[in-house]
Amino acid sequence: MDYIPNTERDKEIMLKEMGIPSFESFLEDIPKSLRNFSLTLQNGLSEPEVLKLLQDLSKKNTHTDNCISFLGGGAYEHYIPTIVDHLASRSEFYTCYTPYQPEVSQGTLQVIYEFQTLMCELTGMDVANASMYDGSTALTEAALLAIRLKERNKVVCSRAIHPEYRQVLKTYLKGFGAEIVEIGSPEGITDVNQLEKVFSDKTAAVLIQNPNFFGCIEDMEAISNITHKYDALFIACVNPISLGILKPPGEYNADIAVGEAQVLGNYLNYGGPYLGFFTVKKELLRKMPGRIAGETVDSNGKRCFVLTLQAREQHIRREKATSNLFSNQALLALRACIYLCALGKKGIVEVANLNIQKSHYAYERLSALDIFEPSFKKPFFNEFVLKAKGNFRINKINEHLLRKGIIGGLDISAFYPELSNSMLLCVTETKTRESIDRLVNELAQIKV
Amino acid sequence: MNPIEPLIFEKSSPGRRCYSLPACDVPEKSIQDLLPAKMLRKEEAILPEVSEIDVVRHFTRISQMNFCVDTNFYPLGSCTMKYNPRINEEAARMEGFTKLHPYQPVEQCQGILKLLYDLEQMLKSISGMSAFTLQPAAGAHGELTGMLIIRAYMEKKGETRHKIIVPDSAHGTNPASAALCGYEVESIQSNAEGLVDIKKLKASFTRDTAALMITNPNTLGLFEKDILEICKIAHDAGGLVYCDGANMNALMGIARPGDMGVDILHLNLHKTFSTPHGGGGPGAGPIGVTEELKPFLPIPRIEVLATESTEKDKTNTYVLNYDYPDPIGRVRAFYGHVGMMIRAYTYLLSLGKEGVCKVGEYAVLNANYLRYKLKKYYGIPYGKTCMHEFVISARKQKGKGVSALDIAKKLLDYSFHAPTIYFPLIVEEAMMIEPTETESRETLDAFADAMIQIAKDIEQQPETVHNAPQTTPIGRPDEVKAAREPKLKWEKNKSS
Distance from B486 to chain A by nearest Cα, in Å? Predict the structure, then answer.
């Protein structure tokens, strides 16, 4: 199936009308030597055949509904209201382009405007953009903004930030010729004393994740104050679901708040596409990367929405743009928007509360087992780290659990050699008491 | 004309609910007992309080204010707005894909890893490149990844080259991506034919130059007929060639960038490979490289570990390999836009070899047909024929006081989405038209008729074009006001 409506007959009619003897004459500029290759592809398949192949591949994966998963670490399982799938499946949303013709794109533009409003509400920040690729690239673009604005080439970054986010930051900053100063988190949260010592007149920004990779809640207020004492930007990378209850970046004076909004109505999708968000204080508006929708009026004086402040962007500024961004994650922002509308003012608090209650229940029961001890004793949101005691081994524990249909916590020793034999467990609202108890009971039976 | 739909916040009414969560089934404690007060939110977030029917009507209504490929012909140059097959959506929405956590053990993810591996092989065959990474999230992200690879390659060779050459017809992302990697960007002027000026390129491509970024076919829809020499000039000077594959649709089954001498190529799955544009994203921008640049690709890479096989029952084991000597690192968390890769893979299975070849052929045929129909009425400054798209100039119409923007707006009244306008920058009053292969002769005829009617109207009654659009949900917006008095979110009591 090739989705091409025109047939050989149409082709002949068209060529005849153009007075062109053969299609090949359109390709005269292509050197003959380039025309000689063969594609090693299979023959095209019918719809039932393709569907069968995809179903077979899909079934080869063990997905999170077929087991009980306690994995988190930057990708989270949350309930998704059914209306999210239904409304986001409207092809008026997913088969349109970037809203460059506002007269026929008010749907997309209004969604972006509502998304911006919702993200400002959740984070307590002044301005939001239309979205970024994911949490890691949003954090990195925030660091780049600070480096450009402050004309300084160092950023201070907590080691408790998601390791893969730090790897992305490192990749970008190397190209950009800037340096990362990492500070440790021996007790599960960023070492504030060490932070004070690393500042210099080259420090553009401090980057902190909250809750951090270990699930622990940082003292954002204290770090924000120290950062501002040195005239650097404070960049917070936050989990939007946690903001139903946790203090939002606007309340601790963050200059930029970014994060991963996959949690807002988007599936795990084996790691992507996800939804980065980017919010700033109003002073930084014109330095912000990415698209922004704004309100205005049309020729009849009616309220409407357009993409605005485009003079920052690459299609106008080329090499002087605030970033090279072109596409964003509009369709996932739509899902986040529908999700937040569905949850509403009460629901966002309820879902955050369920995460806290269930993870604390699991934490208490698991830390009481002989095989574990908590790695840190800090307040946490929906994730925590446990270390296997004595001769117990995390990989053996996880193998045992897998046999029982449970995916245990993420072994974090590859990311943090200093935290050997430890796992990061995540408990969201999707875990029932029964499934948590099952995990506990399976673990209680493990022998060295 | 649709009535304007209020913002969802304006529909909010205290106490309304749209979704219910299960009750807490573990012994509930007070939040204050679990977390220190200083970590808690003081002011609650004012999210809307609406019922399910409110939310459903709201998003349904605003969706109806959009033009989209499913409702309207969308001849947006350089964007390849082809039909997005439904089977792709069906596949990407299978639970075995959507509910897969990126940190699940690879043994549980063999299906998706096989799919990703096989997609890389298909893209290699179509493009002629030696290896692919699927990680980049978009075309521009692929460009950035490519620039980082160029930088790493040069460093490994012990060379410091600080310049990237970009033709003046290039997409804006090209110079922006190069600058993001710390490169100095030199723009070279196209020649009278709208192609890369070989003489200028030779003079500019010095030992300081790391690479040339080229788009082929270029943004005028013209094939760079000197491509072999262009690549040779770069290579002879010890440099590399990066190809922006935004226009790959023209080449499907016709020619391969890898055979042209291109060292790095990005593909846009959301253009050439039929994944939907989603109102701005997500896209996906895999990049392909030559054998020589393979060691620099980002990690992890997907590999086949071992093949235990009898001819009949072949079992491959797919793994994520992080162990490479010279990778540039990671360009995003996890493995890329997997959902888009599933769609592209499904598309390629449906198309097969013959289908892929037809894509290029019918995309070029459709563009030339439209070009032929319009050339009597509009100026076409470059080329005698075109590849998958062409650029007209409304310069003549501008003489009558009607701009490319006016024509674009008038097309909306004919229920056609406008072409890309004012790009490429080297054409005055540019209108860039790309019909794609998924449109029928009848649709092309209807679009041509509308364009011809507009050209005639401009001669006789230009004001009718000035006043367009008249039939869309809103009239022309005041963009100056939007930028001068930025209002970027809804605020209670402040909204008029």
Answer: 6
